[in-house]
Design brief:
This protein has 217 residues and is mainly alpha-helical. The protein has one domain. 74% of the residues lie in helices and 0% in strands. The protein is built from 9 helices and no strands. It is globular and about 45 Å long.
């Protein structure tokens, strides 16, 4: 396991060397947001594959920046999410209730403007060149945020790996790398974990009720 200084240096190298890639990811994300606001009926599969591609981007750039752990972890996560994306229904996205949209939107904004690792003389550059699609925590923030906001993309096969990755990288970011900003990612991942548990509880409740009724008869 490389030292904290080596990891931070690698993440800074990624954010600054591949700034052009960050700009490209911001353009793509902006296009999705504009299309949604304009009334286009975006498919859940479009969002899912966008998320998978951003995860793969992190893996590839991690290898290029000599961060093999992130390269392996995000390649594995991309494979798991791709398998879930292939089973995602090709239907128009539906936004969830406000208690999920609000933390989801906050996470998307956090990842979109992630003010860490990028060296810049103007804060405005974070609006279009923050390392979303380049470094783990910024990218996970956006993907988990979209998952919280969109009702019909959050299957267990999709959400559970994301929640686990968010908790892992949130803990490492806050307590190992001392990037306090990653408290946001950690909090969002825990919210997603609560959503998963709530969905499972609602799914099993009718089954348990039927079993109880049969037992009573």
């Amino acid at each position: 396991m490389p030292s904290t200084d080596v990891i931070l240096a690698g993440l800074s190298e990624t954010a600054n060397t591949y700034r052009w890639a960050a700009v490209a990811w911001h353009v793509l994300l902006s296009a999705l947001v504009v299309a949604s606001l304009a009334g286009w009926r975006l498919s859940t599969r479009v969002i899912a594959w966008f998320a998978v591609a951003s995860i793969l981007s992190v893996s590839a750039l991690s290898w290029a920046s000599n961060l093999p752990f992130n390269g392996i972890a995000f390649a594995a996560l991309a494979i798991v999410l791709a398998a879930a994306a292939m089973r995602t229904r090709r239907v128009a996205i539906e936004f969830d209730r406000s208690w999920r949209i609000m933390p989801g939107a906050a996470l998307v904004i956090l990842g979109w403007t992630y003010p860490h690792f990028l060296s810049t003389e103007s804060w405005t550059e974070y609006l279009y060149a923050a390392p979303f699609g380049l470094v783990p925590c910024a990218t996970l923030s956006v993907v988990i945020g979209l998952t919280l906001m969109i009702r019909n993309i959050g299957t267990a096969a999709w959400s559970a790996p994301l929640a686990a990755a968010g908790v892992l990288y949130g803990v490492v970011g806050v307590f190992v790398l001392h990037v306090l900003l990653d408290v946001g990612l950690l909090s969002g991942a825990l919210v997603l974990a609560v959503v998963i548990a709530s969905v499972r509880a609602h799914a099993t409740a009718p089954v348990m009720h039927k079993v109880a009724r049969r037992g009573g008869v």
